[in-house]
Structures are given as structure tokens and as C-alpha cells.
Amino acid sequence: MDLITVSGPPSSGKTSVIIKTIESFLQRGVKVGVVKFDCLYTDDDELYEKIGVPVKKGLSGSLCPDHYFVSNIEEVVEWGNKKGLDLLITESAGLCNRCSPYIKDIKAICVIDNLSGINTPKKIGPMLKSADMVVITKGDIVSQAEREVFAMKVQSVNPKATIMHINGLNGQGAYELSTLMYDKDQNIITLEGRRLRFSMPSALCSYCLGETRIGKAHQMGNVRKIDLSD
Fold this sequence. Notes:
The chain is α/β, with parallel strands linked by helices and 230 residues long. The protein has one domain: Rossmann fold, CATH 3.40.50. Helix content is 30%, strand content 17%. It is built from seven helices and seven strands, in the order βαβαβαββααβαβα. It has a seven-stranded parallel beta sheet with strand order 3-2-4-1-5-6-7, sandwiched between helices. The protein is globular and about 60 Å long. The mean pLDDT is 91. InterPro entries: CobW/HypB/UreG_nucleotide-bd, Hyd_mat_HypB, P-loop_NTPase. One of its GO terms (molecular function) is nickel cation binding. It comes from Haloplasma contractile SSD-17B. This is Urease accessory protein ureG.
């Protein structure tokens, strides 16, 4: 079984791109499954069920979604192998922009959209910087010049990534993506002992542990102060 990690900011079009790509896999007889990671709510699993692929979802709740991801990915791979999948796709919201759910030697795709703002590529952090491929969506509602400038900004942040423009509505570009993201010769049985590409932030402070009171007396651990000097 091959494993692909897909991440990107909320509403960037991850699910639409994955569904269009899966449709091209199904036409070629590739058995695909999806595990969706999110924070508080998602009904994207229903969209995957509609196209007939096995799907599971996990909500991190009060936990960081990417910490939740890495704490569960081994069991997710076991589930995919039990289902007899050829390809398992994990979709992660990547909400905090400081983490990256990518694993060494496992293909990683970041989805980002043209409408997110010209400086957004600089704000996303390791989720974009350490991706193997970057998929840019919503190109049909901006000008050619805007598409080119945005792609240039993405490339300046991650010059090694393969950049693709995909329309999540009509699927344009999805077949090409499917040919690049799937390796039929991969045989991933377990992730035991593998490593993440990027370490999670060590932001352990009193607020991480449930503190709600404001003031220096209640701030302990990893605390950083803003420089407000003139």
C-alpha cells in the first residue's frame, strides 16, 4: 500500500482536489481509502462515502490537530492495510501553520488557493516549505497574471516542490496529479520507527495545560513576550 499525506489551510480545496483525483484512480482500478483529520467538525467523510471509497475521520477536539495526526497515523496505516487498499490518502487541516504532518520518505502534498492572499505562502510555514508537491486551486477566478505571481511566491518559499494548478470543480489537472502521487511499487506495512520531516513546536505553557487566568502570575513554562518598546 502507498501512503500520501495531503494538508493545507481550511477551505483551500483539499477535499475537492482529492475527490477528483480519486475518480481518476477508480477508473484505473486503484483501490483508494481516505482518513480525514480535522479539529472540531467535518462532514467531508460523507463526500468520500458518496464516491464509494472507504473513509474514516478523526477530530482532535482540544488537541493540536497535527499532534493528534502523528499520534494516530500508525493505527491509520494498519486500518488501510486491513482494508486491502492500494493507496491510502490522509487529509489534514494543518490549522496552526507551525506544524507539518509530513513523514520522511512519504509523499507530501500541500494544497493552497489563489484567493488566500499574496503573502500567504510566507505564513504557512513547514506545511508548505517541506511539501514535495504544491497544488494551487481556484485559478479560474483570478487573472493569469495573478496566478503567475502567486505561483512565483509559492516557488520562492519551496523551490524544490512540483507546483500544479488544479481545478477542484471540474477536475482539470487531477489526472496528471494522480500519475505523480501514486507509486504502485510502494508497500508500506508500518510506520514504526519512521520520523516526521519537521518537529512539532515545544509550546508547553500554563495555557496549554488548561490555565484560563490572565496575568504574569499565571504564566509558566514556555512563555514569549512581544517587544512593545519604542
